[in-house]
Each structure stands twice: as C-alpha cells, then as structure tokens.
Amino acid sequence: MLDIQCLKDFHVLAQLKHFGRAAERCHVSTSGLSRRIQSLEVWLGAPVLVRSGAGIELTAAGERLLAVSADAVAALDSVRRAVHAETSVRREQIRFAAPHIMSALFFSAWFPLLGARFQSTRFSVTSDHLDACAASLEAGEEDFLVFLADEANGVFSRLQPVFERGGFRLLTMGHESLTPVCVADARGRAVHSLDGDRTRAVSLLGYSDECSLSWILEASLRATPALPTFKRHHENSLADGLRSMALAGLGVAWLPHRLIADDLVARRLVSATSRHLDIAMHITIARRSTAMSDCAEAFWDYLNDEYGGARGRAPIGVSPHLPLPA
C-alpha cells in the first residue's frame, strides 16, 4: 500500500536534490528518508532517482510520478482538512497525535479517567512516528501531541526546528523509564549482562532510527560511561517488537517499564545490570500557541487548572500529578 508520507518526502527530495537537506526538512534521518524512497520505488516498480556527480536527478519514471502525484497529494490534504473541520463542527472532538507506544503506555488508561469529566467529548488518536506527529500538530491537523521526552534532550534536539517554528506550549503529565532487560539463564542470571568484562560484546536490540525511543536511547548511551561494546544485529521500530526479540533471547533491550512490568514479576525478563541504567522520560503534551476550538481550549484549561501548571506555560520536568496507570 502506498504511504502518502512517502510521496510528500519524494516531493521535498525532488525539490532540494540532496538527501541530507531533504531529510532535515522532513524531520527524519537520512537512512529513514532513503527507506521511504525505496518503499515508493517498490510500489512504483521502477527507480525514481539516480545519483550523479551533480547530485540527485529524477528518472523518467520519477518525473512522471512527480507530475501526477503533486496534485494528488494536494487534493488528499485538502479533503483531509475539510473532513477534520466538518467533524469538529458536528461534535465536540479532541484530536491527539502520538507515537505508537503511547497507546499501550498511556491512552488506554487515561481516556477512561477523562470520561466522567468530558462525557460529550470524542477523543481520537492518530498514531505515527514522532516526527510525522509533530508535523501534523504544526499543520493544525491535530489539537495535541503526546510523547515521551528525555533528560538528555535526544527528542528535543531532533524536533528543535518544529518546536522553534511552532512556538508550542508544553506540559509534563507523568513519568516513564526505559529499563535494560533480557532473558535469564537457569540460575536466574542475565544472559546478556551489561556488567563484568567490558571487552565482551553484548547484543543490543535497538530501535530503528525513525522511532523516537531510538533518539532517547542513543542520547543516553552516549552520555553513559563504562558500557560494554555493543553488537547490533537486530532492531525494530516498535517497542512491542523489541520485547518479543528480548523474550526470544536475542539480546538486551531498553524497554518502557510499564510495557514489561508483568514480564519482570514473572521473571520472563530480568534486569540486564546491577547498575542503575534506567533512562528517565517525561510524558509530555504539546499544543500550538495559536487558538484551538472551544472544546480543545477548555480541555487545556482543565489540564492546567486541575494539575497545577501555570496556564499554558508549565515547563518540562514539572509533574502536575495527572492520574496515570500504575
């Protein structure tokens, strides 16, 4: 199935004719942009560009696709905006954008808590990679963005251009952590231990670079001393996928604590270290500085009034004790 985001990225690349600059404009890594273009070429059945000494040039197939898809993308975006506007008029609706992991960690427990207060409000969540979610918020397609931010600023350093342009307001609603875990041997010891001989390579199960948890993990690893050498043979864009790999004994993975709480209790997974190597994260909500619908503005006021933040200006790190799942 063709992903419209691949077409949008293709248009940017065709305009800039440079993978690095196009990746920065699209808020994705160079390798992530390359994979999207490859996906587009698989769908089309032909290469859309060639690299030359002068840079990047479109193939004949790429030129044909560009001519047709520009109008198609514009038309689809126009329809989507119109449908969103009509839906908002017909009923009270608050729209969230969030990375996939937030559905498992946050929304499933949070929405029932809001139901009694906002009985007539319809809440909807669009899940995607964080860079795409931030772009949707900036474009006004969603009311709020809910995501995980880290103390090493791995997330904010990647999204800095978007946040600087948008002048977003941020509020921290809770906390989560990434915990290094792996399977245990017959004695209950970590099979892929991060302790001991640091010259021994340890299999690290990593997140693919379009996943915001990868930005958090890599920023923390760079700042953590005395880690072993890692060998990286496996990765996944979803935390659930990495959990399955860890359960299969393929290596150590830093996974959201709430996702693996039952696994730790049942000893299906164990800590991979005796050191404190958990990575602290903040559950953060962002909105645009410009006015939203009356329903969305009332919801924002509720968050601030009920949970202690100054209206619209609560900084990262302030926890207003929003009820969250244990």
TrEMBL record:
<dbReference type="GO" id="GO:0000976">
    <property type="term" value="F:transcription cis-regulatory region binding"/>
</dbReference>
<dbReference type="GO" id="GO:0003700">
    <property type="term" value="F:DNA-binding transcription factor activity"/>
</dbReference>
<dbReference type="InterPro" id="IPR005119">
    <property type="entry name" value="LysR_subst-bd"/>
</dbReference>
<feature type="domain" description="HTH lysR-type">
    <location>
        <begin position="2"/>
        <end position="59"/>
    </location>
</feature>
<protein>
    <submittedName>
        <fullName>LysR family transcriptional regulator</fullName>
    </submittedName>
</protein>
<comment type="similarity">
    <text>Belongs to the LysR transcriptional regulatory family.</text>
</comment>
<dbReference type="Pfam" id="PF00126">
    <property type="entry name" value="HTH_1"/>
</dbReference>
<dbReference type="InterPro" id="IPR000847">
    <property type="entry name" value="LysR_HTH_N"/>
</dbReference>
<dbReference type="InterPro" id="IPR036388">
    <property type="entry name" value="WH-like_DNA-bd_sf"/>
</dbReference>
<keyword id="KW-0238">DNA-binding</keyword>
<dbReference type="Pfam" id="PF03466">
    <property type="entry name" value="LysR_substrate"/>
</dbReference>
<dbReference type="InterPro" id="IPR036390">
    <property type="entry name" value="WH_DNA-bd_sf"/>
</dbReference>
<keyword id="KW-0805">Transcription regulation</keyword>
<keyword id="KW-0804">Transcription</keyword>
